[in-house]
Amino acid sequence: MSYPELFLKKNEDKRLRQGHLWVFSNEVDCQRSPLEQFEAGDLVCVNDSAGKALGVAYVNPNALICARLLSRKPNTKIGESFFKARLGQALKLRERLFDKPFYRLVFAESDGLPGLVVDRFGSVLSVQITTAGMEKHKELLVKILVEILSPSAVLLKNDNSQRQIENLSLEAELVYGTLPERLIIEENNARFIINVAEGQKTGWFYDHRYNRAQFAQWSRGLKVLDLFSYAGGWGISSALAGAEHVTCVDSSESALALAVESAELNGVQDRMQFVRSDVFEFLKQVREQNQHFDAVVLDPPALIKRKKDFKAGFEAYRRLNHLALQVLSNHGFLASASCSHHLSRDNLHEILRSSARHIDRHLVFLAVNGQGPDHPVHPALPETDYLKSFFCTVSSRF
User: Fold this and answer.
1) What CATH number was assigned to the domain covering residues 183-396?
2) Which long-range contacts does 111-115 make (Cβ < 8 Å, 24+ apart)?
3) pTM over 0.85
4) Strand duo 272-276 + 361-369: pairing
5) What is the CATH number of domain 5-71?
6) How many other β-carbons are positioned within 10 Å of the β-carbon of residue 234?
7) Domain extent listing, the chain
């Protein structure tokens, strides 16, 4: 198979040879291969400056990440057989990991399908396509997904900021079947009611599955505070595991409504409270009222979405953790998480260390975790290793 050629500048092939999959626009030799000659989504053969082929990629001349490798075999035909093989491999891995069809089926580059995320909610598939290159193949991708999984519905969740960068539509598309307003999924022996069409991201956050299970195990008999609770994943799991009482706090009325329904579904509503509030304001209020909790989970949305937002985002994480520690009982548990790629584990480590010292508390780490195995980490792409969770216990100073 012969593709148009995209040439890199001298010495700009090193990162690709080390396993990375992205080409940035400033790495391209635009005299030999002007980016404007390509249409967004075109397939190309990426060559080093000496003309040696490095693999097949799709391009977007209008984006900073202007090419993403699909295969390191330069003659690979990118068509039905290619996508069927990649999707089949992703499915085989998940079926080894999980007994029931509730997981992230495709995690973009980590599954060899850059620009594609697929979450499986039983018979419903929630799909995010974030690049023009993958958008060109969406009809084929849907066809294969229907063929291998026989879903009842396939929804393209297009409300993603990355699609704006790639000049793609943000309007959701139900491309197959009939989508119910409510779905019931299973996680950690709990059942949750979700709204895929109107929920955040793909509709649920599978990445914290094992972290929620760990926190729940340590919450038995405790008074728990679940901050940024969304649809109650952490809090309901804790209540089911035997927490004495759980308070879920979120600013989204619709998310809390789902959490209430899920609490009733699991029979734990009598031990749960749901508060619609800005989390910063809630923490300030309970601190002023001298209220304390035995276990606190702090799982905010990404507060640093772009590198230039780091300073403000770091300060927001610092304030949140500082406030959370102030409402934590002596010998209490804190689960502090971040899904911001730009906030490193070392950053969050330092936030927790300095916050504990500032209020003169003795803090130790019990565990440091990441994302679940249905979100595998590509060893050459640090961008895929985005989730970090610190499990701590805090006591009065020694």
Assistant:
1) 3.40.50.150
2) 111/86, 111/376, 112/70, 112/71, 112/86, 113/70, 113/83, 113/86, 113/87, 114/21, 114/68, 114/69, 114/70, 115/68
3) yes
4) unpaired
5) 2.30.130.10
6) 28
7) 5-71, 80-177, 183-396
Helix, strand, coil percent content, the chain, rounded in steps of 5: 35, 30, 35
Supply 129's token pair.
């396509």
Residue the block writes with tokens 């405790």: 222
**Burial label, 10 (beta-carbon count in 10 A; 0-12, 13-18, 19+):** exposed
From 45, 66, 339, 392, active-site residue: 339
Q: What is the pLDDT of residues 3-51, one digit of tens each?
A: 999 999 999 999 999 999 999 999 999 999 999 999 999 999 999 999 9
Inter-CA distances, 275 with 223, 267, 373, Å: 15, 19, 32
Beta sheet of 5-7, edge-to-edge order:
5-7, 43-47, 53-59, 65-71, 22-24
Cα(first)–Cα(last) distance of the chain, in Å? 68
Q: Which fold has domain 80-177?
A: Transcription Regulator spoIIAA (3.30.750)
339 annotated active-site: yes
The per-residue pLDDT for range 41-68, each reduced to its tens digit, is: 999 999 999 999 999 999 999 999 999 9
